[in-house]
Prior knowledge:
Layout: H1 2-42, E1 53-54, H2 80-85, E2 98-105, H3 111-121, E3 127-134, H4 139-149, E4 154-158, E5 176-181, H5 190-197, E6 207-209, E7 211-215, E8 229-232, E9 245-247, E10 249-251, E11 253-257, H6 277-289, E12 293-295, H7 318-328, H8 333-340, E13 350-356, H9 359-373, E14 378-384, H10 393-399, E15 408-411, H11 423-444, E16 448-452, H12 458-470, E17 474-477, H13 493-497, E18 503-510, H14 514-525, E19 535-540, H15 546-554, E20 562-566, H16 572-578, E21 588-594, E22 597-599, H17 603-615, E23 626-630, E24 636-637, E25 645-646, H18 650-653, E26 665-667, E27 675-677, H19 679-694, H20 720-731, E28 734-737, E29 747-749, H21 764-767, H22 775-781, E30 795-796, E31 802-803, H23 805-819, E32 869-876, E33 898-907
Helix pairs in contact: 6-8, 11-12, 20-23
Amino acid sequence: MNKSYSIRHLATRMIRTMSSRLALGLIIIVIALLSFSSVLFSGTPYNDVYYPDLLSPSDQIYNPDPLAELEPRKPLRHSYQELYRLPSKFMLNEDGRAPVTVIIHPEDYGTGLAGQITAMLAQTDQPQAIWITTTEETVSEAQEAVRLAMDERVSMRIVDKQDPWFHVARQASSEFFLLMENGVLPGSHYLGTVLRLAHTPEYSRALLGSHGTVLTTTPENVLDSDLDIKCLPHTDSHGQVRATETVDVLSDIWFGRTEALELMSLEPWSTTGKVPLSIYLSTLLRYYGAIQSIVVANDPRNLATWGDTRTKNEPPTFCTKVQKLYKESSTWHSWIERGRALVSQHERLSSLVVFLSSMEEAILVKDLICRWSLSPDLSVHVAVAGTHRGLGRKEFAHLLPSEGCHVGVYDLKLSYSPRNPTELESARLAAEVSVNTFHLISSLRPKVLFYLQEPSSVFSEGLDVAKARSKTPAIVLKPEDIEHVRWLPDLSIKALENWNTPQVKLVVITNNRPGSCIRLLRSLTHAHYLNDQVSLTLNMDAEADRVTIQMAGSFQWSFGEKFMRHRVRRGGLMLAVVEAWYPQGNHEYAVLLEDDVEVSPLFYTWIKYNILRYRYSADSHLYQRMFGVSMYSQKFVETHLAGRAPFNPEDIFIETPEYELRTPFLLQLPCSWGAVYFPEHWREFHEYVADRLLDIEWNKTSLQSVQIPNSRTNRWSNSWKKLFIEMIYMRGYVMLYPNFFNFTSFSTNHLEWGTHTKQQRNSAGTFLVPLMTDSERLLDDLPNRRLPDWDSLPVLDLWANLATSAELIKRGRALQEQLNPCLLRNSRNEVIWEGQEKDLKCAKTQPYYSTHTTPLPKTTATPATAIESISISAMSVDPLNAGSPTAYGGSYATPQPTPVAAPIDIVANGLPLPSNRRSAVPSPTAV
Length: 927
């Protein structure tokens, strides 16, 4: 028994030993296979692989890879009742009409068109205008329909057969457009419904309609003849749409903002193979402007809320048409592919990686990280230096709140760093940082990197090398800059990628006031430049005194390059400003500063925030009519016929509930007391000034001065600002102005004693404003602590009255048509604006009169209440010595012009007077 027991015991031990060895061998094989597969899929050699230490599931803190378990973003869905519970800022105009132009493309010009006109005239919210599109062959039929309508708002728009009918919508001066075709008959509440939605945060940037299609094809079968589509409204539910739904294509009826149609110029319809309007409009706005197409819910119990009342008894056929068009034409398959991604395809989120080297940095940046993590379009990852450097994954996790901060955390496991490392130890540590961070960047492939740069920091040096090697855009700030960039999470990923793209130059214009100039330079030195390289140029006129020249030469500028320019012949303020800067490219910006200006420490922060927000966002094409950003808050408007009048935007916005009291605004006036100007518009201004100076016969004849209708711009004589106003009026350009409490600004003017201010010195305090010094207050005063969307910015015209961008463009074109008879016109004597918008004058090679046979616009009698004039004054002035006798100050003397002829007033017919719906300016008072 003992022998058999020993054999059994030995056998058992052998089996257990073999089992343990077999298990160990299997574990080794599995680890090897995993390691090999990691190397294989990472595309890097085995001996060069670095695996960052992720948070394990047992930590139960954050998902190490938010992309892994991310669900596709769900589009907005609201029932009709829920839509009406959304807060909306919609208000009718004071005349009781809605700011909408309706454009109808009729199937027939008989009962079908009559029914559509009747449906629009029966709307509870009446449109501003109703246009009927027609060709030359159907003019008489359209005229009959207009006559029967018996309403002055109904008119015709003639289009060529070869041109798309919907392009006439770009001519509308209203804020919104409504396109209708295929005989749709909207219910009487439909226009009011979409207008209300367009003023809600959820749907303010959407293209709205009542018929839509969701395309469920995939890239693999996108070229198949069969197209699987989902139609709204459903044919089996008698035209009901129970909830709003995001779609790929809208058909038959489209409602949106008129300014969004500017995107058509980026890809004209004629270059697309003439795709159907339903495909073209939805895809174009989504592709270039991130504008979604949404089918609006209706009330099944109330036919008046439907987008097409015919669907109650006649199911829509547009789905069948789309399917047929898709089978018959392959020219727009790629267009469906572009637009389809909006709904059917989940796009991978852009990722951002934040590198932290110490607990101090983590405390400083944690709020930014959490706010970034809340963005639905951004995946945030944080790489910490490691426990040996005082910041491991668990230490960082304890800093963050338990909710509302979803980030991936990676431990770089860097080696211990002695307090005073040797040069060799520093080099080794920098190399370790560079290698480890580069492998993490290669794995995550982020769009943007973010880290802090501290002096003599080995961690920063290693990150700089990894950034350069990976060629990934990076935001690199100093620790003291963090409090001034709390607005970073408000920027889009595209704006963050372009953090280093805009190059801002500071241009100081001075002459013989060294005390004023040194005050300005000191204020520039105390500003926060967010670790950017900012160049400084000092422009001195020929009369600059020795003290000014010596001061400029000895002044030390530590934020970038310093340049000095000295004129040998006196140019005067106009040429001093115009010639102070010429942009080298479309990413170079200039802050123009006269020497009696003083700036806030936060002026560069304000400029950078605005440029990135409005110039480098996904829909930056909509902002092309903004020519700059002012640092100064206007307290007066000087373009009124009665002279200078006090101005406070509060007087406008307190009576306009759709705008926040402290919202920044767009004004059709340039600021000469501290502003940043954009490159395209300044180059255009140079061309305009050159054309105007060519009209002068030097020292003999006169400069013909155009007076903008119903304004006092001529009071500035031949100043650069007067010429700039001429140009921006005809182009419909605007500048963004701050609107903080008590006119707090990022620059102020001391109205120093000079040739042009001797009589106004006692009023200097009137123009002084407080300077912004608190970054928190900057955000606190903004609506929702951020710069508003472009659609939410109020637009004020040359006289500081509320207007729309479309209205400004229309007024400018009206004046431009009268001043430029060389504009090309079509067979109906209408100006072809596309390609000619910047032709402010006839070409230099042509005489000022038209050389083609197109007749000039007919002039008709103008009512006495709408008379406006263009003043052409003859002056004997040396343009090189022309100064600027303006209340905005100036550094130079101005010889008084000697009139050689009395001013001539020419009645300009058809120019719109500014709207006085809400008076923006109190009664004028002398200053």
